[in-house]
Amino acid sequence: MHPQVILHSFGYLTQAAGTTLAISLAGIALGFVIGAAVCIARLSREAWLARLGGVYVSVFRGVPLLVLLLFIYYFLAKFGVDVPALAAAIGGLALSSGAYQAEILRGALAATPPGQAEAAVALGFSGVEVWRRILLPQALRISIPPLINEFILLLKASSLVSVVGIAELTRVSMNIASLTYRPLEAYVGGALFYLAINLCLAALGALTERRLAGERG
Amino acid sequence: MDLEVLWRYAPSLLSGFGVTVMCWSAGGALGLVLGFVIALLYRLRLAPLRWLLRVFIEVFRGTPFLVQLFLLYAGGPYIGLKLSATTAGVLGLGLYSSAYFAEIFRGGFAAVPVGQIEAAMSVGMKPFDVLWRVTLPSALIAAVPPIVNMLIVLSKETVVLSIITVPELMYQMQTMAAETFTAFDAIFAMAAFYWLLVEGVSRLGARLEARVTAFMAEEARPA
Amino acid sequence: MIEIRALHKRFGAHEVLSGVDLTVGHSEVVCLIGPSGSGKSTLLRCVNFLESYDAGDVRIAGKLIGYEDASDGTRRPMGARNLREMRREIGMVFQHFNLWPHMSALHNVAEPLRRVRGLPAAEAEERARAMLKRVGLSDKAAAYPSHLSGGQQQRVAIARALAMQPRLMLFDEPTSALDPELVGEVLEVMKSLAAEGMTMLIVTHEMGFAAHVADRIAFIDAGRIVEQGPPRHVFHESAEPRVRQFLQTYHDRNSF
Questions:
Q1: Interacting residues of A210 by C-beta distance below 8 A, sequence separation 6+
Q2: B10 in contact with chain C, both atoms CB, cutoff 8 A
């Protein structure tokens, strides 16, 4: 074991970790927009829209991320669109995450006690106001812990974008491995970085859950 | 999609599918057994053992599956573990899923209502009988839905094995695509195939879950 | 049969039982009543050592439970095997029935007979059937708990405890979790047990039952037994202010 390999490549790994975080953040943010849209579609009164939302969730949860990433890559290539790998990567992560986030939001909305909306209507709130002031804030609150969990999952899934050549944590580990002929140390190094990030996120998740639980009493 | 191409490659695609199923079931079985053992050992309440198990679980849940595979396949030889790609793949799936299954089993144990255990203690049952006849059945039944879920997740993870050249379905598809310049069609077919597979298995899983949980419904219905 | 002397128990900083003295004689039916948080369930659970106690004695037919007094005066926790043996002689019925959901009613009753008394399967089943008949549920032997009403589940739980042929039975608010219409069928079974001479210690809110079936009522408040005696004495002649206050709220709610 040559731990100095990790020490020498610390700078590269840190930079790569930053890339991983950035990609994951972009992915989850875009995924949130997609997820919210799909969730709204699913709850729509228009049957076709609800159906479409359901199909989206089914497809993008059913297709493995690796397949999706390569699909986007080749799809764009086929139609001659020269999109940088980065866009394909973030797009793939977002499309996939969007399906899971749609379900998280749907679950959160279902978890808000219906009695509260009823009370608001009885008091004379308009439909939009019930949404904005009562349902939405609560649904968002409930969805924060599972969303943090989703971010952790996304971060791990981002390792797959290494196959389209993006210099994130896994790819850089691979590079270090082939340059130094020490794959063990290289991948342990990468793994340690992932672990560190995930432990921080898990702690954040636990903290948020406690705070939210305390507020709800 | 050129059907002639598909026909020519049918044997290799079928073989790839076979490898996928084999890896998934072997990896899943390994993960279930290992995860169960870990959950049982955890119940022993030995602090140093628990610490070790916790580290294992956190490492395999906190790092990407791909990195774990690389470690096993590329890094393995440096600690005396010379594994073929497929062996590394199955082992990887097994270790990865065992961490999740361990937590699922732990949750199952925790979900057994204390009252049932108290009832067993109050008639003077031996600890082994309490575990075997009261705790385990309840815990295992409670664990079925999350286990089904995880097995579905695992089936999707098998595609990652293609990156370390395990000749499963994705790998065969990519080989075919490269050799016949039908990348887009091939990937599209893969996506469709996996979607159908996962959708189908999910529905079966949901039915199985419904059967099992109805059996264990806690609330008494009025006679 | 049960001798409780100077019993003390605390949960953390909170003292739940502050010096309880209680005896239950052979074939006696004693009901424990009192406000919530008074410690009545804890007291009951100390009798079969589902809760440990910090000071005092709990003796079943003269034998100390949960601890062993060594000859040099020190007290040690009782061995697991001895505790199990003592528990075999004590039947317990819980507020939430605690039937095992993956076993039919028959198997719920037969299981302790097989595992604890070591009876062969056929004999255990025969005895279980007899017990189910005793509580009026012969036709539900093959039913699973999730298909039984609360009252039926509780009766199966009573059958399960009875099948072990215990010397005494403990009841922890046996009807508190039941719909009002289902309470009666459980109380009937308990009444018949009392008539047969079973020694029973019951924590309950059913004042009517207590008044008619109990030989003695003990009122417990804030970890102490404040009033004891025959039902007529406790319900109508007690001068203790807490007792009167407690019973007053009952009268107010139950007279219509």
A1: none
A2: no
